[in-house]
Amino acid sequence: GRAHRARRRLGVSEAPYPIGAPLDGERLDRVVAMLLGCSRSEAAALIASGEVRLGVEAVTTKSHRVAQGDEVWLDQQFTPGPQPPRAQDELALQVVHDDEAIIVVDKPAGVVVHPAPGHADGTLVNALLARFPELAEVGEPQRPGIVHRLDRDTSGLMVVARTQDAYLTLVEAMSEHRVERRYTALVHGRPETPHGTIEAPVGRSRRDPMRMTVTQAGRDAITHYSLSSSWNEPEVSLLALALETGRTHQIRVHLASLGRHVVGDPTYGRPLSGHRLDRPFLHAVELGFVHPETGERVSFESVLAPELQAVLDRLGPPDEDRSASVIDPAVR
Question: Rounded to whole angstroms, how far apart are CA atoms 21 and 47?
Fold first, then answer.
C-alpha cells in the first residue's frame, strides 16, 4: 500500500523535527508531507501505521494538530522521492496580481495545476517556477505554493502563496471557508428555483475512479447558486455560483445531480447542439480573501474566457435577464 511505497523511499533513522511558529496548529499529515517531500496520502499512511511520533507518543491520527515546541520523530529518513517540478519559461502565464506574499493568476482551460502521474510537465506550477523560483521552498514539494486547485478544463482565478507564512495562512482560510470563490456556469435547462443551495457529499465513483459522484461515503460539499439569465431556445441558463467547500469536480457534480449539467462538460454533461465548445462552460470569475500579510480584504475579478464569451454572443440576448437583481450566492 501507500505506507509500503513511502517506506521503500525512506530509510530507517531517528531525527526530530522541532515545530516552529509557522507550523503551529498545522495538520500532522501536511507537516509530514512537507518534511518528507511525499504526498499527503503517503504521509497519512505512515501516520496510520504508527511510524510518526510526537515526543515519545506515536500519533496515528492524520488530522492531529501540531503545536509550536512539539518534536516530530519519524522512524524514517528522507531519501529522494519524486523529482521536484522543473521550471518551464516557455509556458504562458497570466498574472493578475503579485506582491511579496501572494500571486493571483488567471488560468486558461486545458492546463493542469500541478504535476501528477501522466502530467510531469506543462503544468501551471512549471510556469510559476520559471517566473517565481522561490516558490520551490513553499508548501508541498510536488505542488509548491498551491493552496487550492481548478480542474484542468476550468478557467479563471487562483491564488498562489509566495511565502511559507502566506501558504499556511491561506490553507487555514480555505479550510475554514473564509475564501470567497465565485464562478459562472452555463447549464442545460433551468433550475427549479432562481437561487438555492446544494448540500450533497461528493466522493469518487466506485464504478469509475476518474469520476466523482454524489455519495453518502463522500465528503461534505456545499454549493450556492443564483440564476443570472436564461434562454428558451435552446433551453440553457447562466448561473452565478459560490463554493463553500472545494471538493474535486464539486460544481460540475452538484449541478449534474440536479439535472442541470454544465454545457460542454465531457464527463458529467453533454454538448450544446450548434455550439462548438470542447470544455465545460465553467469559469472562476471572482476570488476574495484576507491578504495574509496586510490583513486587508482583497478581491480579484476575471472576465469570461474568450471561447465562453463567444457562446453567449451566439446565444444572443437572454429571454430572461435577472443579472441586475441576482441574489448574491455568497457563502452565508
Answer: 22
Instruction: Flag whether 301 is in a domain.
Output: yes
Cβ neighbours for 31, distance < 8 A, ≥ 6 positions apart: 17, 19, 23, 66, 72
User: Residue 92, exposed/middle/buried by CB under 10 A (0-12, 13-18, 19+)?
Assistant: exposed
The C-alpha cell at 31 is: 507537516
151 is catalytic: yes
Helices (H) and strands (E) in the chain, counts: 7, 18
239 and 258 assigned to the same domain: yes
Among 13, 18, 26, 19, residue whose Cα is nearest residue 78: 13
Query: Which member of 151, 220, 313, 321 is catalytic?
Result: 151
Question: What domain range includes position 59?
Answer: 2-74
Shared domain for 195 and 235, answered yes or no, is yes
Q: Which helix or strand (DSSP H or E) is residue 34 part of? A: helix 28-36
Cα–Cα dist 171/173, whole Å: 5
Domain boundary among 18, 39, 74: 74
Q: Residues 115-174: pLDDT tens digits? A: 876 677 899 999 999 999 999 999 988 889 999 999 999 999 999 999 999 999 999 999
